[in-house]
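Input/output pair, single chain:
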Amino acid sequence: MKKNYLTIFVGVFLAVLLTAYLIAFQVGVHEKCVLTTFGKPSKSITKPGLYFKYPWPVQKAYIYDSRLITDESVFEETYTCDGKNLIFSTCIGWRIDDPLLFMESIGSIDDAKRNLEGLVRTYKNGVLGSHSFSNIISTKKEDLMFEQIEREIQTPVAQEAIQKYGIKVEFVYITRIGLPEQTTVRVFERMKKEREQIAEKYRSEGEAKASEIKALALSEHDQILAKADAEAKRIRAEGDAAAAQYYKQFDQNKELAVFLKKLETLEETLKQKSTVILNTKTPPFDLLNSKPEDKNGN
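Output:
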């Protein structure tokens, strides 16, 4: 009898588990769900938790990952408004926002990637076709419009994706840019000319600055010489005035003036301890042969 109870208990327990498996399901934090009734989407669930449904084939739960999905395109050629061709690859980041609309319009992640890639390609070609080559590749920072171009691509892609597919586009980035061989040659030639123009500009500015510095230095040179000449004339005038006073005193006592001049010359000649052989009668060495007079004039 006890074995029958145990068998019944196990059978009931398994039946409960099977029933729970058929009618209960869980939606995770990073998941969204769509319930279908007889194969048609009927309800979307966007909040995590434990939910119940009718068993299959009445209802079925489709779980979608709602985390960010990134997808990078292959290199594709496009043209700018000035007829230059470029090779681009883009990266798009998106997530499922409305799972019910997503299931009705697309249904799978792979189909969503293909549809978004087509959207990006369409709007990318249109946006790049409205911009010049220098807005993408240029040596001048003010010409570049990279961020604006990315926004111009993302805005229409995001609007159409949310309206048609229930997909929220978080970003669209241009990841790589390539140049065909013929375009590369023309770009390098243009960049070389721009660099030569910049170099010529710097050379002209340098020459102008050098001329300005030379003119300033020449002006200061002339001013310094003029000041020095004026100062020399002033000093010469003071010296002439002082000499005139001495000459006036010497005129009053010419013998004293001659004696002092001889004495100065003799001092200059003998201060180097030189040996000089001259006649003692030769001025100013005649002073060495002179004898001091006594008080009586003898």
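The CA atoms of residues 47 and 184 lie 52 Å apart. Strands lie at 24-27, 31-37, 40-45, 49-52, 59-65, 69-72, 76-79, 85-96, 167-178.
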